[in-house]
Amino acid sequence: FLFVPAVEVKIEVVIPEKERNKEEMSPNGKASPLIYKVNGTARHYHLEEHPIASNPYHNPKDVVEASVCHVKDLENGQMREVDLGCGKALLIKESGEFHAVGHKCPHYGAPLVKGVLSKGRVRCPWHGACFNIGTGDIEDFPGLDSLPRFQVKIEKEKVYIRASKQALQTQRRTKMMAKCISLSNHNLSSTNVLIIGAGAAGLVCAETLRQEGFSDRIVMCTMDRHLPYDRPKLSKSMDSHPEQIALRPKEFFCTYDIEVLTEMQVAAVDIKNKIAVFKDGFKMEYNKLLIATGNTPKALSCKGKEVENVFNIRTPEDANRVVKLATSKNVVIVGASFLGMEVAAYLAERAHSVSLVELEEVPFKKFFGERVGRAVMKMFESNRVKFYMQTEVSELREQEGKLKEVVLKSGKVLRADVCVVGVGAVPATGFLKQSGINIDSKGFIVVNKMMQTSIPGVFAAGDAVAFPLALRNNKKVNVPHWQMAHMHGRIAALNMLAHGMEISTVPYLWTAMFGKSIRYAGHGEGFDDVVIQGDLDELKFVAFYTK
Predict the structure, then answer these.
(1) What is the tens place of the pLDDT at every residue in 49-82?
(2) Taking the CA atoms of the chain, what radius of gyration do you get in angstroms?
(3) What is the mean pLDDT of residues 337-347?
(4) Which residues, listed in sequence order, are joined to residue 151 by a DSSP beta bridge?
């Protein structure tokens, strides 16, 4: 950070040209109805204006001006947080031009000034979301909202900035979306787009369709009892309640006519007649289909697996119950997976004891390699987590129906009041076996670069798919990351609308344990060497996975 002498600067909020033009089409401030063709049929829609995206000059009291810097204070490629009195903006200079956008990532509020600026985009330092500095639009995930964009003017060697107070305070912008124009005409048992699954992939698909002007019916269905929520939080912040981790509030779905059927399970899909058959016998016709069912956790197959207080963490209720049962009690976690390790880290301070049982000799060996795995294991051991490696569970013993002990194949008996199972998952695609959709030997739905399955009009996204990964010569891979599920949903939506968009994003994941975060970019499957720079013992390092 440089010391900046007080010089007059103004920043003003502007709407991307494309969106401003839409606003100016109608004298009443609402956009005129536009026409969008769906399957050859012309349909009208209205753009729904979000408060943040509306004209900032309608209310002069909402506008703030502040001094920021002289044009020579920023070199090309530099970013700086600037304070406008009632909020901050991120000022950027690239290729001789100044840009100003929101300074916080809308995903979880990371300071973007600590991120990476490259080729007209700024990337979040925490979870890798990426934003266009010219428009503020989100271009890589996770997260759903874009950044507010502020106008920058240069006069007499000074940078002038003017901003809406509301945009400075919210630090996010929801893109304009269409609404459904013919809900009253709907046959309840038919929809234009049916989305099976309400995780990140399903929600981003629905939002992208609306952002692109799609104005017909969209129905999402989920086995869950909740509206879409931030599933990675279940193992990282286990006492979160559903409303705290909701991806969108209930009103959002009403506003943009995205229907969500909760506690509804699809039992079969009739591809020929374009009908989804639900477990309760209800049938729904569709025109376009997205399958985004994710995966199903594997259960233990040992003796006593039915006893009470043994959990797979699938819902907020599961996570909350585990925290309650584990407080000041003995916890056994089976599987040093990401879920298992994150749960162990979260419960270490709360439980009386945390024991972790794993078949491999070190955690994350296949993913991070032995050296990184050992360094992580050491950090856990210094936080009172006890490991039992290269063994499995042979029996769960109960007392009065509730878990009492976990018996290992090594003969060791562990006291246990609660057990969390994190031994991997399988794709939730069993209901598609007779459908005619191409599924590989592991149960993953095979898609092309446009997220289309072997059946025209049927798309798939998220943890249940195998897709061609550009950076590995289009090898078909399964990448069950939160960021990738978002991107899959976006690509699927664009191709439902015949945009011809191919996926090319780099996989990215993060995990956080004991205040340390591990961030992983790329796809290192099949590495034969790990090159480490930095200090592994201090957990301040970069590891390169090579082949």
Answers:
(1) 333 333 444 577 788 877 788 989 999 999 999 9
(2) 25
(3) 97
(4) 12
Distance in angstroms (rounded) separating the CA atoms of residues 451 and 459: 6
**pLDDT score for 305:** 86
Q: How far is CA 295 from CA 118, 246, 424, 461, in A?
A: 35, 20, 9, 12
Q: Which residue has the tokens 């409303």?
A: 243
Answer for the pair 149, 100: CB distance below 8 angstroms, yes or no.
yes
Residues 6+ away with beta carbon under 8 Å from 67: 6, 7, 8, 9
Q: Can you tell me which residue has the tokens 């950090």?
A: 379
Contacts of range 445-452, beta carbons closer than 8 Å, 24 or more positions apart: 445/291, 446/476, 449/474, 449/502, 449/503, 449/504, 450/491, 450/492, 450/495, 450/500, 450/501, 450/502, 450/503, 451/488, 451/491, 451/492, 451/495, 451/503, 452/492, 452/495
Q: What is the pLDDT of residues 356-412, one digit of tens each?
A: 999 999 999 999 999 999 999 999 999 999 999 999 999 999 999 899 999 999 999
**Cα 89 from Cα 101, distance rounded (Å):** 6
Q: How far apart are CA 487 and CA 507, in angstroms?
A: 10
**Residue type at 347?**
L
With residues binned 3-state (H G I as helix, E B as strand, rest as coil), the percentages for the chain, rounded to 5, are 20, 35, 45
Distance CA 459, CA 511 (A): 29
With 0.70 as the threshold, say if the pTM is over it.
yes
Q: Given the DSSP bridges, would you call strands 138-140 and 149-155 parallel, antiparallel or unpaired?
A: unpaired
pLDDT of residue 65: 79
Name the percent of the chain lying above pLDDT 90: 78
